[in-house]
Structure formats: structure tokens, C-alpha cells
Structure prediction request, 308 residues.
Amino acid sequence: MLKQIFWRQHFSLCQCIKRTLVDSSLHCSTIGFSKSANLYEASRPHYLPQAIDFLLDHCNLHPLKSNVSKIHIVEVGAGTGIFTQCLSDFFVQHAKRMDGPLNVRITATEPIKEMYEKIIHKELSKKWITKNGSLMEINVIPQQGTALKLPKIEDESVDAIFCAQSFHWFATREVLQQFNQVLKRDGHLGLIWNQTDISIDFVNQIETLCEKYNTEGVVRSVMSDKWKDAFIGQEWFHLKASNEYKFEQTGELSKLVDRFMSISFIAKLEESMKKQVRNQIENILNNKWKNGNCKLPYNEQVFVYKKQ
Ligand SMILES: C[S@@+](CC[C@H](N)C(=O)[O-])C[C@H]1O[C@@H](n2cnc3c(N)ncnc32)[C@H](O)[C@@H]1O
Prediction:
């Protein structure tokens, strides 16, 4: 038994080192995303239109409130494209009330192949006719890359960088420096998270349980604001606006269990261990929602930083 545990840990450490060598800026737990891309896509909640409204408004890129006709957005850690889809839909939903033409280019970057492959199979690029008959064009260009090694992007060419549920993975001074370099002079950095609401007892029980398996020290945004440390003592960005929205993800028990099973370090556990975790989460949800239809409360947090 002891031998088994040793080899399990040794194997996991080797995987970790291997991953680190492939790209030193990627945390070894991100390998979990390569195993959970399907689960992630099927079980994670979307982003609220009012949060996207707030984000675009404070980045001076709102289709109805700003008069820009050309926008370049870079999304970092785009995963399976859940946020990308919401962003693209937001522009389309406002096209009918817009006057002028608008060309939106969204470079959606993601390092993990299995997540990236989901984005390329989504139909995210769209064309629409605005109120006065001009063209709104949204071009989504998926690219593989990490926050530190972004695909080739010209300096001072980007209007906004958005990180949805991802900035905590690469919150360093070096990354902010890189973001500063590609953003235009009046560019913005927008960060958004769908955080499960751990002030609610049953949610706290589940997250505390999951945290026990966080053995490789993933800094989870739901547990701490440690990502904010990256902004201390830097001179490139200042906080311009922030907001928080509450919502509930509703669904059958199994879907909400899947939502937790898609957490990177849970997804990379071996099968027998995953089964145990699944059973424990099911028990907590069953105790709370006896009829099988569950509600999972969230706080959606948005932060807009302006380049200075
Ligand atoms: C929790 S997922 C969020 C995915 C997507 N943005 C969404 O809203 O559903 C975090 C994503 O960040 C990516 N990621 C992790 N480390 C990264 C890094 N160093 N650079 C860029 N992306 C990274 C992961 O591969 C993963 O797809």
C-alpha cells in the first residue's frame, strides 16, 4: 500500500515536472483541464449580460455607448470559449440598436490543446446588420499561447485584454508587463470570475472538501484574493471600476456535481479517488436539495483596470 502511494505521488510529481519543462509558465495542475474539457464545457455557468455590459462600458468599448468602429480584444485563458461566446453574443444582441459599422476582432488565446480545440469548433465569428444598415462583423481568432507567451501581437495594438476565470493562474508582474506592452495607450484590462458563494454553508462544505485535493497549491480565486498581489508596486495599471452580481446556477444534481469535478486538480485525480470525491459532493447536495433539482449560488465579480 505504502509502495503504491509512493509511486502514485512519484508519478504525479514526474507529470508535474514534465509539464513545467514544456512551458515553465504553466502550473502543473493545468493538466487537469486537458482531462476535463468536455465536463468543463457542459457544466460551467455562462457570464451575465449585465456583467459584460459593465465590462465593455468601463473599457469604453460598449457597442451602444462608445463611438469606436474597430475593436481588438485579446482574451487570455479562453478555455473552451464560454466567455468568448457570451462576449460575441453580447455584440450581436446590440447590433440592431447600433448606428455605425463595427469590426470586432477577438483573439482568444488558450494553452491547453483539449480546451483550445473546443473553441475552434464553435461558431463564434458573426456578421450582422446594424440599425442603419451598416455591417457589424465579429471575428474570433483562436490561438494557442500562454499569458507570458502570447501569440504574435503587435505592441500597443490591443484595446482590451479580458481574462475570464483565469487571471489567478498567471497573476504575476511579468504578465502585467507583457499585457501593458500590447495594450494601446488608453487600453484596459478586464478580469471576471464566477465565484461559488462560499458564505452559503453547503457551498462552503463542498469547496472545503475540494480544497483538500489541492495538493499542488493552485491559488484559487474563490478561496483568496492573492491575484491582487500582482498589482502591488507596479506602475502599469490602476483599478478603474469593479462590480459584483449574484446569480444561481440551476440544474440536476449530477450537472452541479460535474461542475466541481471539472476543477483542474480534481479532474487530474485517479478514477477511484474521483469516485470518492463525487460521492461526497453528491451527499452534500442531496442533503440540501432533496428533490434532485439544485441551485448553486454565485457571485460574479468584475474588475476593470486602466493602463496608465
Ligand atoms: C478556469 S478556466 C477558464 C476558461 C474560460 N475563460 C471560461 O471562462 O470558462 C482557466 C483557463 O486558464 C488557462 N490557463 C492556465 N494557466 C494559463 C497561463 N499561464 N496562460 C494562459 N492561460 C492559462 C487554462 O488552460 C484554462 O483554460
Summary: The pocket of S-adenosylmethionine is lined by residues 25-27, 30, 33, 44, 76-79, 82-83, 110-112, 115, 146-147, 164-166, 169-170 (CB under 6 Å).
